[in-house]
């Protein structure tokens, strides 16, 4: 694959990248979010068309690009994405056959024969998975294995000699260590048959363990290719982040001088394990980590939106068990949450801007047992003006706004209540640069007035710009903390990338003020 | 950056329904046309029948009967839009209506209870059915469509059982008198009850915080939950409300015909749905609303009464109701720009 470029509008997201993978090789693909990894993969899937000049050569044969839909599959290119693409309520066998069921017309499916074949296939890989089991009843690891086996079988059907490329797109973040080992065993068996595997991951240790060579992308460019065994973790990190001048940053404040507003104590949830931290009055605290590290679970756990199995939250000195926390109770305590799923969990797209914006404060507009709609409309356009919502038309539906403007509306929705703590999950996803600065300004302003702000995000640049402190999570725990002047995009990226290394666990920093 | 070019709209009014947009005048005209299309169609339909049959269709006796006798359908449709707004179906409303009217007949006419006691029992039964529906829907997380389809059929069985599958007449004249015999301005009282409920539900949905919460729950449960709305409680109360109002409809129905029969009440189910969905295409398009529902009922009633008076056979009634339901939903989908709706 040579000279791959891809332009979205005016920005070049992939610039003349060449990737060479040998048959029977496991090739790693690394890079930060936005480095062009997923674009590259989507070109291989035929989902994006590359710019002219790109070439794809498979086993000495030139493949015309862009590939029409379905061609990737016929060429023996198969994908396993993080969410695996399995239907949990159906059986393993049905999931294995889904490709055949979708594309072939068969008048009779011989289930017994298919089951026997599936068992045979699993046995070849040394797996004992019952083809009649429901996917939902399997442990996470076996689900991943089923997805990989299915993808590999697709390749074998496409080309008799196992010639093909299997692309594993971050299959490991949600797996326990033992599961990762099993997955690696399967990958090794697969490459023995001559198939090439492209393994996408953020986890440098894993890349060094399983891959032969690894290619690193940075800002759409090829940063370099390393021979995995010989390269150190630091070399990888340097290649991923690059050495650049840091971006501008807001004034550094020492937040430890401020009084503690809210303390989380021993929070344990689905991924979170016994996490404690303090957040000060008017502090902007960032939570980050790699995918699957659990940092994004924290806002929902504190808000009572997802059950926490243990832990307490101390609000202005008053302690409350998280098991009893619920959204109404959280709001009562002046905690607010702005989820990342803008039109799925944060606001209702087909209701109006005014209705969405004023939902938490409706009670203020009751006059003589009646909602005063003209006053509500006035307030909505006032807030719209204050947060620069464009167009500022309160009666328009929320879904008619761009992502950034919808986010302004939803931010106004909670900030007008002057919460003690506002928690945001990926607040600037899909938000353009201009609106982003306005959202940051609004957060800064609120923090200046004493609202504490918690931002869970994988956008390191954003965290570096607005946060007073950043907690870095790995495997459900806080493994590192950056504060004040030490925060930069690269510093956060570096700590995140190294967070899965065993060394990160030996000295868990003191996050809680004594 | 604050002098955005859109301040002309700054003070723009938003209607309680919220969709009468202030955006552009041209859009406003389209909006208004859409909002009142059903009303215009209703008037046009009445005019057509009026021209065809000036002496029979437009006679005061006929108009008064249409307004009075179909109050039952109005009230039942209004009962339905409450859970529909909150995103739940209630298919048991028509059976509940029948059960309630049969309870009145059995307790009052057969067992000699006072009419007040019988009415109280009917209302309480409605509330109990609401609790049962809500219990299955919310505790076991079963789609409301399935639960209420089941309980509705179950209730029909109970009605046949307690009535011995017979029509029971002899209900207290007082009730009949207060429903259809007494008139104000020549229209039976039943019509005014329906009107009163219509005002109440319009006010509730448009001008109370509880009404807003209902709307949010119906549109997106996750958003509502994360905004601190107690979603299950809202749905619970909505299902009780539809149970209670449909049993009140049963009382009205018993008063309208002075008797109760075990079957005719259930035929109201489809017209009620047709009216609710057709109503959602007008006044505040895209939302279930009280006035739209009222207009829709009379649109359907005028159509059917007119056709019947023209001597068309009774099966036309089903064609009309069934066709109206599907067309209404298709129309409301056009209003919503064919966004898929989640009716569970």
UniProtKB/TrEMBL annotation, chain B:
<dbReference type="GO" id="GO:0005886">
    <property type="term" value="C:plasma membrane"/>
</dbReference>
<feature type="transmembrane region" description="Helical">
    <location>
        <begin position="291"/>
        <end position="312"/>
    </location>
</feature>
<dbReference type="GO" id="GO:0022857">
    <property type="term" value="F:transmembrane transporter activity"/>
</dbReference>
<feature type="transmembrane region" description="Helical">
    <location>
        <begin position="318"/>
        <end position="335"/>
    </location>
</feature>
<keyword id="KW-0472">Membrane</keyword>
<keyword id="KW-0812">Transmembrane</keyword>
<keyword id="KW-1133">Transmembrane helix</keyword>
<keyword id="KW-0813">Transport</keyword>
<feature type="transmembrane region" description="Helical">
    <location>
        <begin position="234"/>
        <end position="254"/>
    </location>
</feature>
<feature type="transmembrane region" description="Helical">
    <location>
        <begin position="266"/>
        <end position="284"/>
    </location>
</feature>
<dbReference type="InterPro" id="IPR001851">
    <property type="entry name" value="ABC_transp_permease"/>
</dbReference>
<keyword id="KW-0997">Cell inner membrane</keyword>
<feature type="transmembrane region" description="Helical">
    <location>
        <begin position="113"/>
        <end position="138"/>
    </location>
</feature>
<feature type="transmembrane region" description="Helical">
    <location>
        <begin position="35"/>
        <end position="53"/>
    </location>
</feature>
<feature type="transmembrane region" description="Helical">
    <location>
        <begin position="59"/>
        <end position="82"/>
    </location>
</feature>
<dbReference type="Pfam" id="PF02653">
    <property type="entry name" value="BPD_transp_2"/>
</dbReference>
<protein>
    <submittedName>
        <fullName>ABC transporter permease</fullName>
    </submittedName>
</protein>
<feature type="transmembrane region" description="Helical">
    <location>
        <begin position="145"/>
        <end position="164"/>
    </location>
</feature>
<keyword id="KW-1003">Cell membrane</keyword>
<feature type="transmembrane region" description="Helical">
    <location>
        <begin position="184"/>
        <end position="205"/>
    </location>
</feature>
<feature type="transmembrane region" description="Helical">
    <location>
        <begin position="89"/>
        <end position="107"/>
    </location>
</feature>
């Amino acid at each position: 694959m040579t000279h791959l470029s891809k332009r979205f509008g005016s920005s070049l997201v992939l610039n003349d990248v060449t990737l060479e993978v040998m048959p029977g090789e496991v090739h790693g693909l690394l890079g930060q979010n936005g480095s062009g990894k997923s674009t590259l993969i989507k070109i291989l899937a035929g989902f994006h068309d590359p710019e002219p000049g790109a070439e794809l050569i498979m086993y000495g044969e030139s493949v015309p690009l862009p590939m029409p839909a379905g061609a990737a599959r016929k060429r023996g290119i198969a994908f396993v994405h993080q969410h695996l693409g399995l239907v949990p309520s159906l059986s393993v066998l049905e999931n294995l056959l889904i490709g055949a069921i979708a594309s072939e017309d068969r008048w009779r499916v011989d289930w017994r024969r298919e089951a026997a074949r599936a068992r045979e296939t699993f046995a070849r890989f040394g797996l004992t998975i019952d083809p009649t089991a429901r996917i939902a009843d399997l442990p996470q690891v076996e689900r991943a294995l089923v997805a990989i086996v299915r993808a590999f079988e697709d390749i074998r059907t496409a080309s008799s000699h196992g010639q093909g490329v299997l692309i594993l797109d971050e299959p490991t973040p949600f797996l326990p260590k033992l599961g990762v080992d099993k997955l690696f065993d399967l990958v090794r068996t697969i490459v023995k048959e001559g198939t090439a595997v492209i393994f996408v991951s953020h986890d440098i240790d894993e890349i060094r363990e399983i891959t032969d060579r690894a290619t690193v992308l940075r800002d759409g460019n090829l940063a370099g290719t390393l021979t995995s065994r010989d390269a150190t973790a630091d070399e990888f990190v340097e290649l991923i982040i690059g050495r650049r001048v840091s971006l501008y940053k807001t004034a550094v404040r020492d937040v430890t001088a401020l009084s503690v507003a809210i303390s989380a104590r021993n929070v344990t949830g689905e991924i979170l394990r016994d996490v404690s931290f303090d957040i000060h009055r008017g502090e902007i605290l960032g939570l980050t980590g790699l995918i699957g590290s659990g940092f994004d679970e924290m806002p929902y756990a504190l808000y009572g939106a997802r059950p926490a199995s243990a832990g307490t939250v101390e609000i202005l000195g008053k302690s409350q068990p998280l098991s009893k926390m619920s959204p109404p109770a959280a709001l009562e305590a002046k905690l607010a949450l702005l989820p990342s799923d803008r039109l799925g969990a944060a606001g209702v797209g087909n209701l109006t801007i005014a209705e969405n914006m004023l939902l938490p404060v409706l009670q203020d507009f009751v006059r003589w047992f009646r909602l005063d709609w003209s006053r509500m409309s006035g307030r909505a356009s006032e807030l719209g003006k204050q947060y620069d919502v464009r167009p500022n038309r309160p009666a328009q539906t929320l879904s008619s706004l761009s992502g950034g403007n919808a986010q302004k509306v939803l931010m106004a929705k909670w900030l007008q209540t002057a919460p003690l703590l506002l928690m945001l999950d990926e607040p600037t996803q899909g938000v353009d640069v201009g609106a982003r600065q306005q959202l940051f300004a609004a957060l800064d302003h609120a923090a200046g007035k004493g609202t504490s702000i918690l931002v869970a995000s994988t956008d390191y640049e954003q965290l570096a710009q607005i946060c007073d402190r950043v907690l870095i999570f790995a495997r459900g725990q806080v493994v590192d903390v950056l504060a004040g002047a030490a925060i930069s995009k690269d510093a956060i990226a570096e700590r995140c990338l190294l967070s899965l290394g065993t060394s990160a666990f030996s000295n868990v920093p003191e996050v809680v003020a004594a | 950056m604050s002098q955005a070019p859109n301040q002309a709209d700054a003070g723009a009014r938003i209607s309680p329904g919220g969709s009468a947009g202030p955006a552009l005048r041209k859009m406003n005209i389209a909006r208004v046309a859409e909002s009142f299309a059903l009303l215009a169609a209703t008037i046009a339909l009445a005019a057509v029948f009026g021209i065809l049959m000036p002496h029979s269709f437009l006679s005061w006796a006929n108009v008064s009967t249409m307004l009075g006798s179909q109050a039952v359908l109005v009230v039942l449709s209004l009962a339905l839009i409450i859970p529909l707004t909150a995103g739940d179906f209630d298919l048991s409303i028509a059976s509940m209506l029948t059960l309630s009217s049969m309870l009145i007949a059995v307790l009052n006419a057969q067992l000699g209870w006072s009419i007040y006691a019988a009415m109280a029992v009917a209302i309480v039964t409605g509330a109990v059915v609401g609790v049962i529906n809500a219990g299955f829907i919310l505790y076991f997380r079963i789609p409301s469509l399935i639960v209420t389809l089941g309980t509705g059929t179950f209730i029909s069985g109970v009605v046949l059982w307690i009535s011995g599958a017979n029509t029971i007449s002899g209900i207290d004249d007082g009730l009949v008198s207060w429903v259809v015999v007494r008139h104000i301005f020549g229209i039976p009282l039943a019509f005014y009850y329906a009107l009163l409920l219509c005002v109440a539900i319009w006010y509730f949905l448009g001008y109370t915080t509880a009404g807003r919460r209902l709307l949010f729950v119906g549109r997106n449960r996750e958003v509502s939950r994360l905004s601190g709305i107690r979603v299950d409680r809202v749905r619970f109360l909505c299902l009780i409300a539809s149970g209670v109002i449909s049993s009140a409809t049963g009382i009205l129905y018993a008063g309208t015909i002075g008797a109760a029969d075990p079957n005719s009440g259930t035929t109201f189910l489809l017209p009620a749905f047709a009216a609710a969905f057709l109503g959602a295409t007008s006044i505040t398009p895209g939302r279930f609303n009280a006035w739209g529902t009222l207009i829709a009922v009379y649109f359907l009633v005028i159509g059917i009464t007119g056709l019947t008076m023209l001597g068309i056979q009774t099966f036309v009634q089903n064609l009309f109701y069934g066709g109206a339901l599907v067309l209404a939903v298709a129309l409301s989908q056009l209003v919503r720009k064919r966004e898929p709706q989640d009716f569970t």
